[in-house]
Amino acid sequence: LKLFYDAGILHQLIGAFKKVLHLPQFDGYHHYPVDLHSIKCIEALENIHDPHVKALYTPLSAADKLLLKAVILLHDTGKGRKQDHSEVGTKLILPFIKNLKLPAHQYDRAALLVRHHVTMSNVAYRENLYHEKTLYQFMSKIKTPENLTLLYILTYADINGVGPGTYTSFGANLLHELYEASLEIASQNDRIGDALKRQNKEKKLINDSEFSALSKIEQKKILSIESDLFFFKHTPHEIVAISQQAFGCQNFTYALAVEAGLVIHIFRKIPLNLGYLLGKLSYLDVASMDIFTLFDGIKYFKIEFLQRPKEGTLEQIELIIDEAFDMSKKLDLPKPIIKPGDITLECDHSIHYAQLNLTTANQRGLLAYFVQLFDEAHINIATAKIHTNKNVARDHFLIEKQNRMCDNAREIIAKLVGE
User: Fold this and answer.
1) How far apart are CA 190 and CA 165, in angstroms?
2) The pTM is what?
3) Last residue of a domain, one of 139, 160, 187
4) CA of 19: how far to CAs of 49, 81, 237, in Å?
5) Distance from C-alpha of 126 to C-alpha of 316, rounded to nearest angstrom
6) Domain check: are 79 and 169 in the same one?
7) pLDDT, tens only, 353-380
8) Exposure winner among 156, 256, 293, 307, fewest CB in 10 A?
9) Which run of H or of E encompasses 357?
């Protein structure tokens, strides 16, 4: 390659280099013009010094090594145009790959690697690698462990091809951490799919006029909300409306609405004695309840009941809600019948959260009893989805992993069923 470059015929042999022939890069980062940088990247691939990268490269099949070399050679040939060079590069790589007679399933892989050839370094250097949202969003783009491995090697070669001293031990550690963490969650296809769905929801929200009218700080707070379900469940208008109410919350605020049944909306910064509240209102059947952790320590509760309250009782219900912010209040709740098989605890749901699922016969005061036990066990509910249909309660609680919860899963379930 260097011989062809020095002879001035590289662009004649590989047409994709015509637009980047001796193209300088005045970005304060790259040491070489685009075409020479590409050759330096190939040199780095053929002389891998990082033991982690070398251990991944050596066992690759001949087809994968050929694909990787082609991608590394042409990854920047989309530069020198008005469009994003990564997107242009995906169009340039395909004819080259086809000429190499590689299998058809490699075409999409080659395009993906070129499209995301700067993604891994951007995520490793700029984002929080200990935040699971970062990992799921990253893997939603990369899709498979095989693509991840090839991208890691490509990123190594790309950085080394920039110039001497660019690939540092600090950067190498960040890339390796991102690779290992992403590999760990790569098999969780449902969560990766959620991350992709979340990204699409965020794009719609960002393009919404009501969202655009908010301050940049307010927008950032909304996008920082952990719960994917919050974004899946609500329209952009609803997300903005809920968030605007939360922005004005000092200690707590609530609103009651009477639709098909009673609906209570609560925003709180200070602790809410949810078990007490549900216990006092247990004469009404809970149809659904959502709990979302928003921002600035604010939680949002939406509790929907099947029945409408009796006329003239709304003031009494408001008094109960006010009292529910007194954490010293306790109720002697009747113990519902819950079997051990009615409860499952998914500790591998995500890095920071476990999911507790309850499917059992609906019983008066069931949810109040359950939530009160959560409070007593200091189990923090991040998100809850409560649903009752045909006299069956199907409740899902996303709870923070704490106090060696998953090590004591059997004991926690035993306490919840009253064994």
Assistant:
1) 40
2) 0.63
3) 187
4) 32, 8, 46
5) 52
6) yes
7) 788 888 988 887 788 888 888 877 777 7
8) 307
9) strand 353-361
